[in-house]
Design brief:
The chain is α/β, with parallel strands linked by helices and about 350 residues long. The chain is about 30% helix and about 20% strand. It is built from eleven helices and 14 strands.
Length: about 350
């Protein structure tokens, strides 16, 4: 019984190319009590592997968080399987705006303590007492209200390339960091302001809204389905788009372009750019923004040191890495002392008392 991947990413990419079939990229989440996450995980793998589903899925006692791709001609069978599971019947599927057959190259279903690393003790508050879900039309109205504070619940490297107009974009590396920072900086506005939140697909706001209501915020709202669902709604209904730049996504595509605006800059030279890349030096692998000129000049590396290593024969690179472990940068997102033009997003709450421009 196959319960794990038995093909490399390269082998899977070759199979996808040979199949020549269009694949749909999508995501969904659901909070639900799962008694045995390991058994549920294995059930999903057996079924989805047969349907050639690929992606990154987290299962925990509190529910499921899934980002995946499925062959277009298997979508109905995939949807039927979801509907056969009680808490996933008619679950909202966030279908990507831009599809890429190679968005995911493996099926990875992992059992975790939580489906989002929030650092919260869920026993201390009612996680089901969430904020008001709003659609794109209502969201557009709310964020123009002078009594609204709009907060981006994503991380710095996500909001750097795209965000909603007038949004507060916390300079944080993780979701768990943002929770206490936002509460502290908004403590004087718990009753007199609308706290409106958004994230990529909605899952981070789901937990955050319950947490902030527990902390005493009276008017808490969250964008239903996140940025992905927002873009689909404005396109379908002809609404004004208030998102500028790109929406960062956690697959091989890295981002979906929402507007023509390029609001970020190359971390190496400062030129307008919003394309994330990983340093070509496998011992570094730092994620950063690099323009085409620097990409060519630096051979897709983040520094001259990494470029020198990258140009060594592969066996010499392996020898250098022996016993060294991973570089501290390998898990970082756009943070390193040598990236001189990394945008500084600190002091983000200073404009609260200023009128909106």
């Amino acid at each position: 019984m196959q319960l794990y991947n038995n093909l490399s990413a390269k082998e899977r990419a070759e199979l996808i190319a040979q199949a020549g079939k269009d694949r749909l990229t999508l995501s969904f989440y659901a909070y639900a009590k799962i008694g045995n996450p390991e058994t549920f995980r294995n059930h999903l793998f057996l079924t989805w592997n047969e349907l050639d589903v690929l992606g990154r899925i987290y299962v925990a006692h509190e529910g499921i968080n899934a980002q995946l791709s499925v062959p277009a001609d298997n979508f109905e069978a995939f949807k039927a399987h979801l509907d056969s599971i009680s808490f996933l019947a008619n679950v909202r599927l966030n279908i990507a705006i831009e599809h890429d057959n190679f968005a995911f190259l493996k099926l990875k279903i992992k059992v975790r303590d939580k489906i989002v690393a929030d650092g919260l003790n869920d026993d201390t508050f009612d996680v089901t007492d969430i904020g008001v879900h709003v659609n794109a039309e209502r969201f557009n109205e709310l964020i123009e209200d002078e009594n609204t504070i709009l907060v981006d619940m994503r991380n710095h490297y996500e909001s750097e390339i795209g965000h909603f107009k007038n949004a507060v974009t916390p300079d944080v590396d993780t979701f768990r960091e943002s929770l206490d920072i936002i509460e502290e900086d908004l403590k004087d506005h718990k009753e007199d302001k609308n706290l409106v939140m958004y994230c990529t697909g909605g899952i981070r706001c789901e937990k955050a809204s319950a947490y902030y209501k527990h902390k005493g915020f009276k008017n808490v709202f969250q964008l239903e389905g996140g940025i992905i669902n927002y873009v689909r709604q404005i396109n379908e209904k002809g609404l004004e788009n208030k998102f500028i730049g790109k929406n960062f996504v956690f697959d091989q595509r890295r981002a979906e372009r929402i507007s023509d605006d390029v609001i970020a800059h190359c971390h190496q030279c400062g030129a307008p750019a919003d394309l994330h890349t990983n340093c070509a030096n496998d011992a570094c692998h730092l994620l950063f923004i690099q323009c085409e000129a620097c990409k060519e000049k630096m051979d897709n590396c983040c520094s001259t040191t990494c470029m020198e290593v990258h140009h060594l024969p592969y066996e010499e690179q392996k020898e250098l890495r022996k016993g060294q472990g991973n570089s501290n940068d390998i898990f970082k997102k756009g943070r390193a002392d040598h990236l001189y033009y990394k945008k500084d997003l600190r002091n983000i709450f200073e404009h609260f008392e200023s009128p909106k421009s």
